[in-house]
Amino acid sequence: MTILALETSCDETGVAILRRLNGDLGSHLLGSEVASQIAAHEKYGGIVPEIASRNHLVYTPRLLDRVTSSAKIGLSEIDAFAATSGPGLASSLMIGASIAKGLAIGFGKPYVAINHLEGHLLSPFFGSVEGNRQIRPNVSLIVSGGHTMLVRVNGLGDYKSLGRTVDDAAGEAFDKVAKMLGLGYPGGPEIEKQARGGDPNRFDLPRSMLDSENFSFSGLKTAVRYLLPKLKGDFLADLSASFQQAIIDVLVRKTIAGAQKCHVDLVTVSGGVSCNQELRRQLGEACGRGGFEFRTAEPWLCTDNGAMIAFAALLRLQAGYRSEVTEEIDPNLALA
Questions:
Q1: Angstrom distance (rounded) from CA 212 to CA 216
Q2: CA proximity to 57, closest of 91, 16, 88, 80
Q3: d(CA 225, CA 181)
Q4: Given 133, 152, 226, 307, which residue has the most CB atoms within 10 angstroms?
């Protein structure tokens, strides 16, 4: 089975082709292309939906040509087409879903609508033989620019929310604080770079809702805003490190608490913010101390991409799931 998937939930345009191999050999990624729009949105300090959707219209046909050429496969040889149906920006979701539906109708093949968050959640299992057979029970932290949530995973499609952000997502907080500090966009990598030479204990920043299942980062962002006018001299590295550590402390503590509560032996993390090496290190060490196996995807698979959508679609198809081409996008689609 060969699947072509499109991801256009926000500003990245992703197209990928994934093939299930025979027997227990897992799956093989034949091609994956991502077009970034960072340069187009950087001057605004965030995503402009109209610009994002216009660029998806430009990039998607180009990436389709590029990925089919690199995979040495024609569209008529694809067995199923998939696309992200939500959550995300409505105008962006519509581009990928409409193109995938059109291809499915044109070639008489199945269409699979995939939840963007499920794509992230399953990405730590990407390509593994185990992932092709089943998804092990685990507690999963999904942390990105638009989402921060903790999920109990019992199996494919069987998810229970353990907590989610009540205001800013962690990635959104990184972006907004980076803008305050005069750093570039997206903010996460910029703050991480500055934090490498900083003292994470210099500034005592708040860790909100530590005893709640949910997350909140707006208070942390506000604390930085009020602190900045009082600071003089060389503080950028220390403030970046202190801010980053405040977020990591919350994410690690709640994830470990969730895993202990659910009595699982596996913890996974996914989403763009999971590219942060300090978060990976500290969460991995906390899992080791708690006796949990820790698993995350390669960094290229953590940011938005078509490969994770293709993988989720493969597992869904193997489980007998199909979507109707009349199925609508849902910008507020829930995972659990």
A1: 10
A2: 91
A3: 9
A4: 307
pTM of the model: 0.95
The pLDDT tens digits along the chain (336 residues) read 999 999 999 999 999 999 987 655 578 999 999 999 988 888 887 889 999 999 999 999 999 999 999 999 999 999 999 999 999 999 999 999 999 999 999 999 999 999 999 999 999 999 775 655 679 999 999 999 899 999 999 999 999 999 999 999 999 999 999 999 999 989 999 999 999 999 999 999 999 999 999 999 999 999 999 999 999 999 999 999 999 999 999 999 999 999 999 999 999 999 999 999 999 999 999 999 999 999 999 999 999 999 999 999 999 999 999 999 999 999 999 999
Could you tell me the two tokens for 2? 């060969």
Total length of the chain: 336
Q: How far, in Å, CA of 119 to CA of 304, rounded?
A: 9
